[in-house]
Structure formats: structure tokens, C-alpha cells
Amino acid sequence: MRRWHFVTFLALTSAGCSRQDVDGLERIGRKVIDRTQAVVSPLREKFDHTIRGIGGTGLRERVQQRLQWDKSLADSRIEVSVTDAVVELQGRIKSDEQRRRAVELAGSTLGVERVTDRLQAD
Description:
The chain is an alpha+beta fold. 61% of the residues lie in helices and 19% in strands. The protein has 2 domains: 2-56, no CATH class; 59-121, Histidine-containing Protein, Chain: A (2-Layer Sandwich), CATH 3.30.1340.30. A 3-stranded mixed sheet has the order 1-2-3, covered by helices on one side.
């Protein structure tokens, strides 16, 4: 950090700025950095909390949440089981479109290597 101050001082003095100008700009720079950190800090905490939550969620829960939140699967009953990175979908669905969507969502979930489809259409 000190090196940055020295380089800035050299650049500004060679541009015709006095030591007083350099000190004033340095104070302004510190204020900008402090205020930026004050704004960013709560956001970073929220981000870190979210990332920890995602990382702490198991594969089964991630797939289950994706299926539950998809509007096209709202009226379906799908159970998810996981062995290693293989997801098995079981339950009742109303159409082949729901089947395709459920398999697509499960297969595109981070950590899933393969999906076994045991869904039954009404």
C-alpha cells in the first residue's frame, strides 16, 4: 500500500501538484475506499451466507427444490432419491412434457451425473 502512495505522489508532483494537493487527494481516496467497504461489507456477508447455504445443501435437496419451484410441475408428485451422483425420479405426472421437464431440471442440476426416470404418466 505504501508503494502505491509513493507512485501516486510521484505522478501527481510531476503533473504539477503540490504536496498539499497530494495529501488532499489521498484523504479523498481513503474516504472513498472506506465508504465503499462499508457498502460492500454487508453485501459480501449476504453473498457468503448464500454460498454457504448452497454448498451445505445436499444434491437431493437441490434437485427437489428445482422441481418444486418449476411452475410446469406444480401439480406433479415427484420423489427424488440420490445414490452418489445418480438421481432417481419416481412419482406421478400428468404428461410427457412434465416428464421431459423433470428429467431436464434434474439432469442440469450441479453435481448430477445421470438421471434415472421412473415417473409414471396418468
